[in-house]
C-alpha cells in the first residue's frame, strides 16, 4: 500500500502539478507546504480505494504527460500554458470514453485537493457556518 | 467466531431500519431480544462540524463518491447511525398516487402508504419553513418559475430548531434535522432495542447473520462499537434487511440467494441528477438558510423534477463541467451563484442492476437510457430559463458546449442545450435516490418480496427499504421508505405472538 502522504511517485510530481495548474489556474500560487497538503488529501482519498486505482492514476498521469510528444514534440509539463489548456480541453471531450473518464477522475482529485482547503473556501467567499442565520442577519 | 441468539435482527439504521426498530420496540420492552446492526459509526453531537471533506468521509460510503461500474456516475448514500437520514435535507413528500398505481403491486395501496406517511411526518415534525427563513437562492427559484409561468412548490421539511446552517448534506451540526438518528433510533433504544454500530453484516445464513464488528481506527469520528471487535454468528427467528437499495441487494447476492431469487439486484433506478449553476451580478444569500426549500415537479409531464440546492465548494467544483480558467472564474463567483438540482425520472430496465464482485462488494451497473438523457436535457433548458428569468447573467449548462450560456444568448437555449452535447464521462452525473434491487411483486420470477416485504419462499426474511421499489418513485423517497417499513414491521409484529410467549417462558 502506498504511504498516505503521497498518491504518486516523485517522478510524476512535475507532470501532476502541471496538470493540476492547468485544471485550476489559481493553484499556481500554492507554496510547497500547500502542495504537500494537496498531495496528502488526494492520497487519503485514494487510500480507501483498491491499490489498482492508484496504479491507474499514475499510469494516466504518465499517458497525459506523454501524448503531447506526438503533436508538439514536448511532454505536457514542458508545454506553455495555452497548449496545456488546449490539450486538456481536447482530452476532456475526447471521442474515447476512457480518456474522458480519466480526465474527469483526475480533475475530481485535483478539485478535492484544492477546493476542499479551508483557505481556498474562504477566499472564494464561501461562508457557511453551523450558526447559520444567527450570524448572517 | 462468537455465537449468540436474538429474536429479531434488523440490518441497517436509515429510514427503513430506524422505522422498523421503532415499530418493534414494544416487542423488546416485552422481553424479545431485538438487535440492529449498523455498518457505520455513531457520532457524538459535537462531531458534526459541517466541514466538507471531514464530514463526507465520516458519514458517506466512499466519502459520497461511490462510482458505478463504468465510472460515469457517483452515488451518494449514508453510512452511519441513522444511515442516509443523517445526510439528506429532510424533504418530506408523500408518494404520488399515479406512481403507486403504476407499480401495480398486489396488496399495496396508495391509501395505506399515504396514511402511514402522515403518521411518519407528524412524528418527524414536518412543516413548511417560515417566509423569513428562506434564502435568496430559494426565492430566486420561485421568482424565476413564476416569471415563466411555472409554479414552484414548497418542500415540507422535518426540522426542529433549524438555524439555517445550510449544511444538511454534511449532517446537521445543530441537531435540527429529524432523521432516524434523532427520532426513531433513540426511542427504540429507550425501549430496549440493542443497536450495534461499526457492525458489517457479511452474509445471511438460514435464520442467522454473520457479522464483523470493526475496531475504531485512529483519527476516525464516532464512538467505538458497542460490541467487542470480531466476528459473530447471530441466530434469529426473523431477519429484516434495511441496508438500502445497494446494501440489501448486495448482502443477499453475496449470501447466495440469487439462485432462489432470479430478480435479485434487478431494476435499479436512482433519479440521475445534475447540479446546475447560474451567476448573478450581485451577491445572494446561498450558503446560509435551508438549501432545499422549493421544487418544481414536472415528472408526469416531462420526466424531471427541479429542486433548489446549495452545495459546498468541492462538490460544486466537481459538478461543473470543464476545467481551467472558465471553471475557476465560476468558482470565484461563489457568493453570486444560484443552484438548481435537476433530477431525471428513470425507469427500471434489464441492464441497470446491482451485482457483487468476487469479494462480495457491491457493483452497480447503470447506463443512462436515451429517454433519461432527454429528460435531463429538457430539465436543463427549463432551469436555464428559470435562472435567466430570475436575473442571472450567465448559466452553466453541462449539456451545452461550451457549458457557459450568456444572458444575450438566452433566446437560443434550445439550440445550445442539446442531447448531442451530453457526453457521459465528461458531464458529472450523480444520484442519491437509490431504489430497487429487491422489488415487491407477486411473481417470484419477476420480484423478490411480496407487498409486505416478505422474501418469496423465505418466511423468516424480510426487506424494508428503498430496494423494495419496483420502479422509480419520482419524488424524494424517505417518507415512502418509512411508510413501507412500517408495513413490514406490522407484519413482523403480527407473527411475533409466538416469539413473545416463548420469551416470557
Distance between the termini of chain A: 49 Å
Number of strands of chain B: 23
For this structure, the quaternary state is: heterodimer
What structural class results from the helix and strand content of chain B?
alpha/beta
Instruction: Outline the low-pLDDT stretches of chain B.
Output: none
- How many domains of chain B? The number is 2
Distance between the termini of chain B: 28 Å
Strand tally of chain A, please?
Answer: 0
Radius of gyration of chain A using CA atoms only: 17 Å
Helix amount of chain A: 55-70%
Mean pLDDT score of chain B: 96
Structure in words:
The complex is a heterodimer of chains A (137) and B (505). Chain A has 137 residues and is mostly helical. Chain A has one domain (10-135). In chain A, 63% of the residues lie in helices and 0% in strands. Chain A contains seven helices and no strands. In chain A, helix 1 (13-23) crosses helix 5 and helix 2 (32-47) packs across helix 6 (97-115). Chain A is globular, with a radius of gyration of 17 Å. The model of chain A has no long low-confidence stretch (mean pLDDT 92). Chain B has helices at residues 15-29, 52-59, 97-103, 110-123, 136-147, 184-190, 244-254, 299-302, 313-319, 325-332, 370-389, 413-416, 478-494, 497-503, and strands at 2-5, 8-11, 34-37, 66-67, 74-75, 126-127, 153-154, 157-158, 194-196, 199-205, 208-213, 230-235, 238-241, 273-279, 294-298, 304-308, 337-344, 353-356, 362-365, 394-396, 404-406, 430-431, 461-463. Chain B has a seven-stranded antiparallel β-sheet. Chain B has a five-stranded parallel β-sheet with strand order 9-3-2-13-23, with helices on one face. Chain B is 28% helix and 18% strand. Chain B has two domains: 2-125 and 165-268 and 433-503, FAD/NAD(P)-binding domain, CATH 3.50.50; 131-159 and 273-345 and 369-423, Cholesterol Oxidase, domain 2 (2-Layer Sandwich). Chain B has 505 residues and is of the alpha/beta class. Chains A and B meet through helix 5, helix 6 and helix 7 of A and helix 9 and helix 10 of B.
Amino acid at each position: 500500500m502506498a504511504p498516505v502522504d503521497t498518491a504518486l511517485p516523485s517522478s510524476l510530481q512535475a507532470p501532476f502539478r502541471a496538470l493540476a495548474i492547468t485544471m485550476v489556474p489559481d493553484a499556481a500560487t500554492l507554496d510547497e507546504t500547500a502542495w504537500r497538503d494537496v498531495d496528502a488529501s488526494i492520497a487519503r482519498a485514494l487510500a480507501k480505494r483498491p491499490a489498482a486505482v492508484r496504479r491507474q492514476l499514475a499510469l494516466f498521469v504518465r499517458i497525459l504527460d506523454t501524448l503531447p510528444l506526438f503533436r508538439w514534440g514536448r511532454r505536457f509539463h514542458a508545454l506553455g500554458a495555452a497548449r496545456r489548456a488546449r490539450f486538456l480541453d481536447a482530452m476532456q471531450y475526447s471521442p474515447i470514453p476512457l480518456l474522458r473518464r480519466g480526465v474527469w477522475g483526475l480533475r475530481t482529485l485535483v478539485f478535492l485537493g484544492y477546493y476542499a482547503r479551508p483557505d481556498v473556501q474562504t477566499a472564494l467567499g464561501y461562508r457557511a457556518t453551523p450558526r447559520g442565520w444567527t450570524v448572517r442577519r | 467466531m462468537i455465537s449468540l441468539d436474538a429474536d429479531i435482527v434488523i440490518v441497517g439504521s436509515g429510514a427503513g431500519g430506524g422505522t422498523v426498530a421503532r415499530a418493534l420496540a414494544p416487542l423488546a420492552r416485552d422481553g424479545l431480544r431485538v438487535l440492529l446492526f449498523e455498518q457505520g459509526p455513531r457520532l457524538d453531537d459535537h462531531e458534526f462540524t459541517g466541514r466538507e471533506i471531514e464530514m463526507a468521509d465520516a458519514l458517506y460510503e466512499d466519502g459520497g463518491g461511490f462510482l458505478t461500474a463504468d465510472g460515469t456516475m457517483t452515488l451518494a448514500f449514508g453510512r452511519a447511525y441513522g444511515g442516509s437520514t443523517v445526510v439528506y435535507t429532510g424533504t418530506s413528500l408523500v408518494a404520488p398516487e399515479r406512481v403507486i398505481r403504476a407499480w401495480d403491486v398486489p396488496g399495496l395501496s396508495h391509501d395505506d402508504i399515504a396514511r402511514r406517511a402522515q403518521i411518519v411526518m407528524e412524528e418527524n415534525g414536518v412543516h413548511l419553513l417560515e417566509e423569513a427563513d428562506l434564502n435568496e437562492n430559494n426565492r430566486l427559484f420561485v421568482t424565476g418559475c413564476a416569471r415563466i409561468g411555472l409554479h414552484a412548490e414548497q418542500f415540507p421539511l422535518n426540522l426542529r430548531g433549524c438555524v439555517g446552517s445550510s449544511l444538511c448534506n454534511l449532517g446537521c451540526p445543530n441537531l435540527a434535522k429529524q432523521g432516524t438518528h434523532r427520532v426513531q433510533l433513540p426511542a427504540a433504544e429507550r425501549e430496549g432495542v440493542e443497536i450495534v454500530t461499526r457492525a458489517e453484516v457479511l452474509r445471511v445464513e438460514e435464520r442467522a447473520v454473520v457479522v464483523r464488528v470493526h475496531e475504531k481506527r485512529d483519527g476516525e469520528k464516532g464512538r467505538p462499537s458497542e460490541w467487542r471487535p470480531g466476528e459473530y454468528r447471530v441466530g434469529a427467528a426473523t431477519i429484516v434487511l434495511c441496508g438500502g437499495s445497494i446494501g440489501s441487494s448486495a448482502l443477499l447476492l453475496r449470501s447466495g440467494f440469487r439462485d432462489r431469487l432470479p430478480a435479485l439486484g434487478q431494476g435499479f433506478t436512482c433519479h440521475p441528477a445534475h447540479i446546475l449553476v447560474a451567476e448573478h451580478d450581485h451577491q445572494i444569500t446561498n450558503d446560509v438558510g435551508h438549501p432545499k426549500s422549493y421544487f418544481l415537479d414536472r415528472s408526469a409531464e416531462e420526466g424531471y423534477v427541479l429542486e433548489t440546492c446549495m452545495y459546498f465548494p468541492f462538490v460544486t467544483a466537481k459538478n461543473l463541467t470543464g476545467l481551467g480558467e472558465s471553471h475557476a472564474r465560476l468558482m470565484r463567483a461563489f457568493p453570486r451563484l444560484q443552484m438548481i438540482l435537476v433530477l431525471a425520472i428513470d425507469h427500471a430496465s434489464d441492464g441497470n442492476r446491482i451485482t457483487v464482485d468476487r469479494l462480495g462488494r457491491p457493483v452497480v451497473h447503470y447506463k443512462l437510457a436515451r429517454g433519461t438523457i432527454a429528460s435531463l436535457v429538457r430539465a436543463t433548458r427549463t432551469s436555464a430559463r428559470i435562472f435567466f428569468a430570475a436575473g442571472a447573467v450567465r448559466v452553466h449548462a453541462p449539456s451545452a458546449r461550451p457549458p457557459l450560456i450568456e444572458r444575450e444568448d438566452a433566446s437560443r437555449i434550445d439550440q445550445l442545450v442539446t442531447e448531442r452535447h451530453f457526453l457521459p464521462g465528461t458531464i458529472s452525473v450523480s444520484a442519491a435516490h437509490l431504489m430497487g434491487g429487491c422489488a415487491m411483486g407477486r411473481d417470484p420470477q419477476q420480484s423478490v418480496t411480496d407487498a409486505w416485504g416478505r422474501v418469496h419462499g423465505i418466511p423468516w426474511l424480510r426487506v424494508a427499504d428503498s430496494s423494495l421499489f419496483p420502479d422509480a418513485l419520482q419524488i424524494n423517497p424517505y417518507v415512502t421508505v418509512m411508510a413501507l417499513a412500517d408495513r413490514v414491521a406490522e407484519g413482523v409484529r403480527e407473527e411475533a405472538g409466538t416469539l413473545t410467549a416463548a420469551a416470557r417462558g
